[in-house]
Amino acid sequence: MTLALLHTSPVHVPVFDALRDTDHPGLALRHLVSEDLLARARDEGPEAVSDEIRALLAGAVAAGASAVLCTCSTIGGVAESAGATAGAPVLRVDRPMAAAAAERDRVVVLAALGDTLAPTLALLAEEVADRPVEVRTVLVEGAWACFEAGDRDGFLDLVAAAADAVTDADVIVLAQASMADAVTRTVTRIPVLASPRTGLAAAAAAAAR
Questions:
Q1: What is the dihedral of CA 182, 183, 188, 193, to 10 degrees?
Q2: Residue 6 — φ and ψ, nearest 5°?
Q3: What separation in angstroms does the CA of 97 have from each of 66, 159, 207?
Q4: How far apart are CA 50 and CA 56, in angstroms?
């Protein structure tokens, strides 16, 4: 059984390998890293990379993947939709997180990249359905510049500080998988949700079916 992971940054590879070792020992992971997908999605919109995503999904399944997990929130919806013809389940890493957040009444979404907000809000709207939920967004200024510069500590510290500044919410959502480790740097008493662990668990279950 092999789970393929579609990343738009190589920083996700060790994160998901570590989660696999802790939570799903024995699960074979195949990492597909395409940084160009995010760059193009930001410039032209996520739908602009749908053909490339379909090709990557088809290649992963042809190579033996039982399921594919897209770890990029910006293109996650496109990947999920393209999965209809992939021949294996295709999941977006942030859906289980969004489902958990949708059970609360006041949700604050933190994002380091503005392009991630629209796909994340659309996903939350799907999970919320008709229930009245207040959703607010915060773009963490300067965080993405730190990420692109390779300043992981600076990036995570800014995300954690933004989470700690939230006071009127029932849950805080970290919109991007790369933000997950900021959870360990926060002091807020508000629950902070990150996507990698729950997303990998859902994908591992799909691969096992």
A1: 120
A2: -100, 115
A3: 22, 17, 19
A4: 10
- Name residue, tokens 């997908």: 37
- Mean pLDDT of the 92-103 span: 97
Q: What is the rounded CA–CA span in Å between residue 19 and residue 201?
A: 9
Question: Residues 6 or more apart from 9 whose CB is under 8 A from it?
Answer: 33, 35, 38, 72, 178
- pLDDT tens digits along 10-22: 999 999 999 999 9
DSSP 182: G
Beta bridge pairs of residue 32: 6
pLDDT in tens, 62-93: 999 999 999 999 999 999 999 989 999 999 99
DSSP type of residue 59: H
Cβ(139)–Cβ(197) below 8 Å: no
Provide the pLDDT for residue 1.
87
